[in-house]
Design a protein that fits this description.
The protein is an alpha+beta fold and 717 residues long. The protein contains seven helices and 43 strands. The strands form eleven sheets. Strands 18, 19, 20, 21 and 22 form a five-stranded antiparallel β-sheet that branches. Strands 2-3-1-6 form a four-stranded antiparallel β-sheet, with helices on both faces. A hairpin with an 8-residue loop joins strand 40 and strand 41 (579-584). It starts with 46 loop residues before the first helix and ends in a 34-residue tail after the last helix.
Amino acid sequence: MGLEEIPPNLPRGEDGYVDWSKVDVKDLEMPAGDDMGIVSDDEGIDVEEVKSESGFGTVIVVDNLPKVPDAKFEKLCTVVRKIYGQIGVVRENGLHMPKGADGVTKGFAFIEFHNPVEAAAAIEQTNGYKLDKAHVFKVSKFDDFSKYDAVPDVYKAPEPKPYVARENTASYMLDDRGRDQFAIRFGDETEVHWNDAQVKEPVEVYKRSFWTESYVQWSPRGNYLATVHRQGVALWGGPGFARFAKFSHGGVQFIEFSPCERYLASGSTHDPANAREQAQVVVNFFDVRSGAKLRSFQGPISDFVTGAQRGLTWPVFKWAGASDAGAFFARMGKNAVSVYEAPEMGLVDKKSIKLEGVLDFCWSPADPILSVYQPEQGGGNQPARIALIELPSKKEVRSKNLFSVSGVRMFWQQSGDYFAVKVDRLTKTKKSTYSGFELFRLREPNCPMEVLELPDKTQKIVAFAWEPKGHRFAIIHGDGARPDVSFYTMIDEGSAVNKVKLIGTIKNKTANCLFWSPKGKVIVLAGLKTMNGQFEFFNVDEMETMASAEHFMATDVEWDPTGRYVTTAVTSVHQMENGFNVWTFNGKLLYKHQRERFYQFLWRPRAPSLLSEEKEAEILKNLKSYSKRFDELDESIRNAQDSHLAAEKQEVTDAWNAWLAKKRSRVEADDYVDEVRKIMRQRYPDWTEGGAADVVETQVEVEEIISVVEEPLSMAR
């Protein structure tokens, strides 16, 4: 603001200058659009949302409150403060609830927050909040009253906004070299890179400081990058990573996309105002394309923690696999699983699925099939039970009773073809346990199942993993520091009926985790945590080790969506060696990338292929003819790199030759020779140019010891 822009109505002293001691800075208004050179850290909130015409942008009006007498006034105020205190900070004496002449409240209240952002979040989250059957909140801005009062009596159609084309969120799929992108987060920075195997280093696409206050997450099909903030969630996409949508949710901690990317769930927990009360949980569901909130679930944490859970486990609601039958999501309650369908967000058939004592459930990744586990009931008289339930019909596809069960874990194969249950059973003495597997074949008639037990069923099961696209699975088993790894197949070509069959076992491996390639065939046997980052790249088709490697203190392993590359990373769990390594599928190290305070590495998912299975099989069969074009492109890149390196070397050589020529011309110049003569005469009065004194010969003798050999001396007697 220049001197000529200072408002003339400000009080001034005798010298004509503004007397700032008499100015209330709260009454000053800065020029529109002037940020005084200070860039906001939070670009997730639009100016329109926090602008206030009257100065009451922090005040909201809550209507449809209960009308209570003086005796219940304080109790109602406490309830209202508790609800809104979870969203933002209510100012001291910031709750005003008017009363009538009879002392009964009028059914509405004014609430003042510390800033307009909190006020906007309170409206977003509590408008429509159901206090009880008779009182559903209607919440609005205080400023809205003057705005609606100024609406003209004669309707005037608004001018249409000009069409602005959005960026293509799938543009990354059009890369002519078929590269994949990944996002990394370290310190206060978030960056997106291409993985370029030819140049053997990441190629930067986009970067931004303070892009998130918590973490980032790709959507399941890779169209969006979600960033999490105090006020809510923002989605970014396109070549320039423009913001596509934002969703208001104060204090959001968790997010989860539906597999089809059409819906987003966000969750948060809020500490109670009173230590004797429970923490509150809020879960909101949004439509990704429109940004509309579809439904909100709120309540004490005890309503969201069930079964054997010791605390809140996210996701509270689990999405079913993408299918044509609809978008389903489910939540486990006491003796029931509630299944909802989007976008209506209502219960399927308007009722939950009754399951006595249900402890766990999960969805098939490919179909709307729900797997549930019910423990033993009635002191062991009623067996434990695993059931597969199809939606929306709620028809039971298959079930299995289990006895003497101490615990179970459920594993779906990514394609939904197979389902496995690891069952830990008690021995007859009840003093020890042993493990086995119940295996289900979902694509075969009547969903047959069979039992698999290891030769030594008392061995500890360290890890289990299905081949994502295939019929095999791997198990790490053993009690020592170097367990065994066994591979099985669900297809027995030598039998008329498919039975699980052992492919082979490899002994004494430094591994405690299994990471299959997304395309199958190759698996990484990883030794994380106490095993300090040992890796073995194993070809299951040939049952041979392709390479062994080490990434000291590695904490994470992640395959790229094509199965060509795999990343190992050391995150900020460790204070040293933070960063990531990129390897080829057969264990060749491409490059290392070190970053301090390294938090996340996320490969960008690819959209589902539009090719049929027959077309993919044809391409695979004729891969050499298709790959010729890419081989030529790779060769041109290598040649360009060689040319670039040769050009750099030539540039250095030319620079040296130019410097040398410049020095020679200087030395040979007459003025330089005269200056040298002058200096020599000053230092050596007897010096004559070309005389004998110009040359001094010195003869030096140097003795060099070639070797020293010690030999024993024999003494003659």
